[in-house]
Design goal:
This protein has 382 residues and is mainly alpha-helical. The protein is built from 19 helices and no strands.
Amino acid sequence: MVYNSLTEVPRNLKEGIDWLMALKGANAEKNLAAFGAAVHKFLADKPVGFAELPALESVKLISKEFLEQEGLKNQPVVKKLLGRFSGSMNKNPGFFAKAFGTVDESDYKNVIKTKRLTEKAVADKLGKVMLGTEKFLDNVKIPGQYKSAYSSEATWDASCANEPEACAVIFVGIAPMLYTGLRSLIRESDIAIRRCAPFGSSKTLEKVLEPMGYMETDCRTSVRASDVFKALRGVSHQMLTTLYDLSGFWAFYGSGKAGDEKAVEPIQEEQSVEPADSVDQVWPVDPVEPVEPVEPVETVDPVESVEPVQPMDPVDQVYPVEPVETVEPTKEEQPAVVEELVKAEEPVKVVKAAKSVNAAKKAAKKVAKKARQKKNRAQNSQ
């Protein structure tokens, strides 16, 4: 099916990328500037909560139908977003949810304001989205055979110039479709490569490609994981973040229609549950590791200081005991010398006293020896 106006909503990833390429047109710079300004104006004044705009709701319904297709609905990222179309959405997450990145800022804040995005900044981001998707398209289409879902009549000037908000609403409505479609392809091609089947076909990847609209004859029939992964090289994390942020989750999702008030209560419960995360304060219990202070019981090391038993070296004072005054049998001069030494060294440390006593003993022995030698010489001379 071929659309002749950009106000006709794309219904899958292929048509969504064709819509972007048609909007870009021949005068990309001018069209992007006008497109960026329109998207900025549409989102900038939207408060956090839930605003139900009929024009946007019809586009959201098409994106929801895309996500509910058999090959996509079980993708993790799709499951996460599907619940937002009819269920509740927490617009006031707790501290831990924010700190650990389990929620995105654009889920609960108007990122146009918080990130201070200007019209030009939005246009630049959209330009990168178009560049990345164009690279992907160039790698999956068969040159000369590919047919866009939008005819040459579908241009910005013809479809959006007079009513730019209409095209801005369509983009915001299909942004979740573009985001989940690209994310799912990246995931499945990566899994196939990791399973060592980069050059073979992947049944799961085929199932994902089919609802995307890329199993038609004007696209490459090869579904080798390596080819798909290569085609997605132009899809950056920044580009995916732009698609997510400009989906307007903070303002247009989480109506809680499946029982408005009942749905709100679980949100409050979640908030209280998150404080329960603060039960992580149980961590302070970890300080029970002050059991380490028990290691100071290694102050038993001080027991090694029992080496102060070394002071028992003063047992060298046993030397004073040696003055077994057996030296006394020599001359009477010896006790006198010893007494003088002892008196002189009373104020001195015990160790020095012991050394002095040893010296005195040696001196006494020398004196005794000389006395004996003198006596012997005297006897010999007689």
